[in-house]
């Protein structure tokens, strides 16, 4: 694992492969934003059973190429509530031993295409700014409130990976970067407004 501070209080962790990335982040990420497991203590087997029923097979390690979690999500793992931890989970916790909250963690893997890495990194940094910069978050929510997001929210819910509490944040990140997976249109004005805001804060937080 390679740790890089890409913006103030926003850290990128790069992994050798997508499987190592996803298997390390699985319980951190799903404790944060899963529609089924958010805020719950669960085992890998419990999550795998649920995901397999949802998707028809356990494809988690190839379905997701980017991860993002706020620093407070580490707390129950440090407190032993997820005992036993995997060696990978221990490794991630060790990277942030003694770090001051709040901060944000992004995960990517190294053998992604350069263009895709930049695209995914921008998406995840947007999440990081939403968490670490209250002014950015407030301005983002104000912009989002001007648009009809029913189609985008419906698409996000249908993916089965997001708790309702993170839907606004996800709308904002997908509106900024788009996605090859998107099957609905993002209002052009929304994308332009949020990209302008992102560029302003991303540049100033470097």
Q: Summarize the main sheet.
A: 4 strands, mixed
- Structure class: alpha+beta
Q: Order of SSEs, N→C?
A: EEHHHEHHEHHHHH
Q: What proportion strand?
A: 5-15%
Tell me the total number of β-strands.
4
The helix content, as a percent range, equals 40-55%
Average pLDDT works out at 94
Task: Work out the helix count.
Answer: 10
Strand order in the sheet with the most strands: 1-2-4-3
The value of Rg in angstroms is 17 Å
- Low-pLDDT ranges: none
Please tell me what the overall shape is: globular
Whole-number total of structural domains: 1
Between the first and last Cα atoms, what is the distance in angstroms? Answer: 22 Å
Question: What does it look like?
Answer:
- By secondary structure, this protein is of the alpha+beta class.
- Helix content is 55%, strand content 11%.
- It has a four-stranded mixed β-sheet, sandwiched between helices.
- A hairpin with a 2-residue loop joins β1 and β2.
- The longest helix has 19 residues, at 114-132.
């Amino acid at each position: 694992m390679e740790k890089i501070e890409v913006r103030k209080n926003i850290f990128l962790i790069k992994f050798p492969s997508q499987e190592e990335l996803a298997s390390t982040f699985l319980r951190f990420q799903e404790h944060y934003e899963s529609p089924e497991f958010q805020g719950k203590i669960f085992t890998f087997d419990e999550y795998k059973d649920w995901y397999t029923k949802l998707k028809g097979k356990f494809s988690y390690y190839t379905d997701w190429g980017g991860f993002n979690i706020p620093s407070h999500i580490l707390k129950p793992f440090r407190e032993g509530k997820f005992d036993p931890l995997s060696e990978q989970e221990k490794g991630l916790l060790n990277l942030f031993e003694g770090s001051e909250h709040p901060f944000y963690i992004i995960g990517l893997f190294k053998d992604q295409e350069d263009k895709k890495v930049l695209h995914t990194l921008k998406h995840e940094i947007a999440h990081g700014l939403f968490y670490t910069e209250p002014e950015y978050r407030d301005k983002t929510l104000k912009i989002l409130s001007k648009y009809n997001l029913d189609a985008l929210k419906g698409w996000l819910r249908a993916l089965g990976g997001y708790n309702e509490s993170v839907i606004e944040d996800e709308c904002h990140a997908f509106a900024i970067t788009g996605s090859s997976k998107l099957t609905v249109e993002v209002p052009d004005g929304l994308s332009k407004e949020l990209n302008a805001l992102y560029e302003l804060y991303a540049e100033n937080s470097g």
